[in-house]
Design a protein that fits this description.
Radius of gyration: 15 Å
Strand order of the largest sheet: 1-3-2
Number of strands: 8
Strand content: 15-25%
Shape: globular
Distance between the termini: 14 Å
């Protein structure tokens, strides 16, 4: 990703709520953008990366990150849909959602919400994903404007 794209990046992955998250540290090794674990009431700034903490749902309202305890029991959670739906409501046509490798259908409803608001939606080409069911679900639902290799997806929204 270009360091000075003017975009903020919020990364949500399905995490085991009992394990310490290492994603922020791992991502920091790959970018010169600041990478921080999301905290409640943190203003989203451009050219920065925010990572969901374990055992939380993350949303955005008024450009501010909101954390909440998961509303569903473990195994039924859809943290990507929660984030994307809030992002669609908060940012409208400026929202961008990307679904990468993962199991289940999390992200599909959220991409549909972003698309409805005129935002940009992207999904990883399922054949290139370690776990293809999340991108397959998004594509089958018609929720992805762009489908491509994960390495090619930044070109789609950095040029938008």
């Amino acid at each position: 990703m270009p360091v000075h794209s003017g975009l903020a990046y919020i990364v949500v992955q399905h995490l085991d709520p009992t394990h310490k998250a290492m994603l922020a540290e791992l991502l920091q090794r790959a970018t010169s953008m600041p990478v921080r674990e999301a905290t409640a009431s943190l203003r989203v700034e451009p050219n920065a990366v925010y990572v969901i903490p374990p055992n939380t749902e993350l949303s955005v309202k008024g450009g501010i990150l909101r954390l909440a305890e998961p509303s569903e029991p473990r195994g039924m959670r859809l943290p990507i849909d929660v984030l994307f739906c809030s992002l669609a409501a908060d940012q409208g046509a400026r929202a961008i959602g990307v679904v990468l490798s993962g199991m289940g259908s999390d992200g599909t409803l959220g991409l549909q919400a972003i698309k409805t608001q005129g935002g940009l939606t992207l999904a990883q080409e399922p054949r290139s994903a370690q776990f293809d069911s999340m991108p397959k679900s998004a594509i089958a639902a018609g929720a992805a404007d762009v489908v491509g290799l994960a390495s090619d997806l930044p070109d789609a929204f950095c040029s938008s």
